[in-house]
């Protein structure tokens, strides 16, 4: 489904987030460099949801951490990620802490329990976030915290519990509630449906979708392709640190289907489809081949795949013709 709003004829609005040639490598002992993200470029518009999919270890979460300056000390970044005139990759910690995190960019973290303060209740953490990001006053704070919790389907009768008293699913919903408080122009949600049953998955992604429908940007990282199909305007498929396909959601999940063989394999592995797993395993990032990283697992591979396919026309594959440009 496509949710993006229309633009007046002749107008091309500037993207909310413009990522160009983003690369991340980790400098290891003995001088080894491990490329975790390689040459990723995309735009994200206000009112749009872009979903990143791919197997574990393909670089999705590293990309999100780079945008927020949350990488470990041995990480090195290249490229740009511009938002409202600010290059997020070049910004210092003071700028990121005071003006970006929570205010310009919200985050639903992949490991919510690690991001919740263990010695404070969920209510107190929500109240503090409300005061910092919205200026809410003590009067009416109880009602405000309960409204904030309800946005993430977090039960009001659990607000006075500590993080260690929460299940994984409840911790996930608490982290989502905290991320939504500031109504940041851009929200990054890293595996926001982990630990949730199907009904709660649908309710959570619908609330995230409303964040985009209100004119904000939404970048979602997920293994849940059903959730992706429910929420996405566009889908970016990552493999071995690269984006190998970028497609409209309607085409990707519809009759046309994915164009890259890896992306087709992801859908074919679903139980409601052919339930056929992709053979083999992803390569180790410190031992990537010179050419196409997917070639050892691909039934279409030829000698031509010994060279790295460029990303052009929304695809990085030697054997798939480029899509015609949109009118």
Automatic annotation (TrEMBL):
Query: What are the protein's UniProt keywords?
Result: ATP-binding, Cell membrane, Ion transport, Membrane, Nickel, Nickel transport, Nucleotide-binding, Translocase, Transport
Root EC class: translocase
Q: Which reaction does it catalyse?
A: Ni(2+)(out) + ATP + H2O = Ni(2+)(in) + ADP + phosphate + H(+)
Return one GO MF term: ATP binding
Q: Which organism does this record belong to?
A: Streptomyces sodiiphilus
| InterPro entries with a match to the protein in the record | AAA+_ATPase, ABC_Ni/Peptide_Import, ABC_transporter-like_ATP-bd, Oligopep_ABC_C, P-loop_NTPase
CDD domains reported in the protein's UniProt record: ABC_NikE_OppD_transporters
Q: What is this protein called?
A: Nickel import system ATP-binding protein NikD
Family under the similarity heading: Belongs to the ABC transporter superfamily.
Q: Where does it localize?
A: Cell membrane
Its EC number is 7.2.2.11
Q: What is the membrane topology noted in the UniProt record heading this document?
A: Peripheral membrane protein
Which parts of the sequence belong to the ABC transporter domain?
19-265
Which superkingdom does the taxonomy of this entry point to? Bacteria
Q: How does it assemble?
A: The complex is composed of two ATP-binding proteins (NikD and NikE), two transmembrane proteins (NikB and NikC) and a solute-binding protein (NikA).
User: Which one Pfam family would you cite for this protein?
Assistant: ABC_tran
